[in-house]
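[agent] plan:
  1. take the single chain provided in the ticket
  2. run structure prediction with default settings
  3. attach structure tokens to the ticket
  4. add a short note for the reviewer (M.T.)
[agent] executing step 1
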Amino acid sequence: MRTRVKKTLRIGLLILLAAFAYLLGSGKMTSESNAEALSNEDFIRLHVIANSDSEADQDLKLEVRDAILEALDEGLAAEAFARADGGETGAVSLDKEEFEEYLTGQLGEIETLARQVVRENGCGYGAEAELTVCWIPEKTYESVTFPAGNYEALRVVLGEGGGQNWWCVLFPPLCLIGVDAPEETPAGEGTEWALDQRYDVLFTEGGQPVELKLRFKTLELL
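[agent] step 2 finished; step 3 output follows
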């Protein structure tokens, strides 16, 4: 009798192990496996630093942020469509390397735009933009929490850069998703960004909170 019970328990344990292995292999633990597949090198952040903590400088920081996001949304969507040879669908994509290439080529334009917004608000200080690596504290966007660490970032410093910062995730384009493509693009309004499946964990259904556990790699200054 005892032998039969032990045999039954072993069979049951083997079935449980097989079921667990199946779930891992079939992708039914997608969120966890995708999170583990991501590292800090899979993201580009946007980092805007105000001149000071005065109310005027903080408000101006947000105006500069809005102008940069609007310009990048239009430019990146147009760039994606150009690389796709005028695709007919509403989904466009750029990988991280193409994103970096575009941003590097636009740094001068981004600086010019930031300085223009500053001047229009009656301020005399300048603005500098660079694609670099910087330490960013833990941040939560919607329901996703990014751990603190070094990330590649488009860093825009206004004036003395002595004020509070503003961050978002530029790649994948979480800052830009939901903004319409420029009217001259083949897809017209409602353009969607097609992203690698590894990023699915960032888009949770039902607002379930996700705390990313990224693999942090060594990033070289660009």
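[agent] step 4 note for reviewer: The radius of gyration is 23 Å.
[agent] ticket updated
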